[in-house]
Amino acid sequence: MHGGKVIWLMDNHTADLQNFQQSPTYLATPLELNIEDILFRYGVRINYDLALDLYCTQIPIIETVGGNPQPKLFPWVFYPLAVSRNNHPIVKNIDPIWFRFSSSIDVLKILILILQF
Questions:
Q1: What is the pLDDT of residue 105?
Q2: Which stretches of 31-75 are DSSP H helices?
Q3: Of 10, 36, 66, 108, which one is least surrounded by beta carbons within 10 A?
Q4: What one-character-per-residue DSSP string does 10-70 give?
Q5: For position 21, what pLDDT does the model report?
Q6: Strand 97-98 with 68-82, pairing
Q7: Whole-angstrom Cα distance, residue 36 to residue 103?
Q8: Beta-carbon neighbour count of residue 54 at 10 Å?
Q9: Which pLDDT score is estimated for 81?
Q10: DSSP class of 15
Q11: 50 vs 34: CA distance, rounded Å
């Protein structure tokens, strides 16, 4: 990584649609990956929250209409879509990216002190 670019993709909490189907409340529990210290050195903190976005994908939910169960698509704000509006060569011609239960991040300003003896 010596001055290059890095993309970190990690699953830092347990969140599943099956958990949501079993109870009306939703609980996402954080996973202890023990990687927080190294990310902090690079100036990044991953928060233990769930990002919500109105620009999202839809999930099928069974809806009973007149005693007849029918699947309908409803927007699910926990599945945001990331779309690049930029014409940069790296993201040119890339379809929208579907995130599931993503978290927010904080970019930190870190002062690195070099001690010389």
A1: 86
A2: 36-41
A3: 66
A4: ---EE--HHHHHHSSS---EEP--S-HHHHHHTTEEE-SS----SSEEEEEEEEEETTEEE
A5: 67
A6: antiparallel
A7: 14
A8: 7
A9: 92
A10: -
A11: 19
Place of tokens 């233990």: 48
What is the spatial distance between Cα 27 and Cα 13, in angstroms, rounded to a whole number?
10
User: For every one of its 117 residues, what pLDDT tens digit does the chain have, with 9 covering 90 and above?
Assistant: 567 777 777 888 887 777 666 666 767 778 888 888 888 887 888 888 888 889 999 988 888 888 888 888 999 888 999 888 888 887 888 888 888 888 888 888 755 544 444
Residue 62 to residue 91: CA distance in whole angstroms: 36
Q: What's the whole-model pTM score? A: 0.69
- Domains in the chain: boundaries: 1-49+103-117, 51-100
Pick from 101, 107, 108: which is nearest to 30 by CA? 101
Residue type, 48: Y
102 membership: H or E segment, kind and range: none
Phi and psi, residue 17, nearest 5°: -65, -30
For the four alpha carbons of 100, 84, 72 and 26, in that order, the dihedral sign comes to positive
Report the alpha-carbon distance of residue 100 to residue 57 in Å, rounded: 9
Kind of pairing between the strands at 105-107 and 44-46: antiparallel
